[in-house]
Design a protein that fits this description.
single chain, tRNA methyltransferase activity, RNA binding, alpha/beta, Alpha/beta_knot_MTases, 172 residues
């Protein structure tokens, strides 16, 4: 049997050299997180999960969505958003929200940046977005068509755009 999600929990120092850090704040839907884990395994990006989670890391649906790729990534958990922000400088974080003025295509991504996504039902806290308007990015959508794009789809869009800006480090 391959590695299980809980077997891949690592300390932050173990993923410091990742090209990007994908951060899910209070994710609630296991298949979304599993899909993001698979993306991180494919790209070499680190996955950060900010608690509380809407599932356990040994959840059956989380394992199934990540398939057998859990051995190809490290997962860092943080007890709260404040704890995560204590480990990453805000000027290295990009805050993804439907409420931003700037699009992800306008961001000057750099190696080691953190792409921070909020929980499926509420997004990121408004107080964080208000305090760091210059770090907020959005994915363009047709007005009034949908409230937001699925979390794992959003992560894929922005992660690959950032990796493209970096020249797809370590990818072929």
């Amino acid at each position: 049997m391959g590695a299980q999600p809980q077997d891949r929990l690592v300390a932050l120092d173990a993923v410091r050299d990742a090209p990007l850090h994908v951060v899910l704040v209070e994710p609630q839907i296991p298949p979304n997180t599993g899909n993001v884990a698979r993306l991180c395994a494919a790209t070499g990006c680190a996955l950060h999960l900010v608690e509380p989670l809407g599932f356990t890391v040994d959840d059956r649906t989380l394992k199934r969505a990540g398939l057998d790729y859990w051995n190809a990534l490290g997962v860092v958990t943080h007890p709260s958003l404040d704890a995560f922000l204590a480990t990453f400088a805000i000027d290295r974080c990009w805050l993804l929200t439907t409420r931003a003025q700037r699009t992800y295509a306008q961001a000057p991504f750099a190696r080691g940046d953190a792409l921070v996504f909020g929980k499926e039902t509420a997004g990121l806290p408004q107080r964080l977005l208000d305090a760091h308007v210059d770090r907020a990015l959005r994915i363009p959508m047709r007005e009034g068509a949908v409230r937001s794009i699925n979390l794992s789809t959003s992560v894929g869009i922005v992660t690959y755009a950032a990796l493209s800006a970096l020249g797809f480090p370590g990818l072929r």
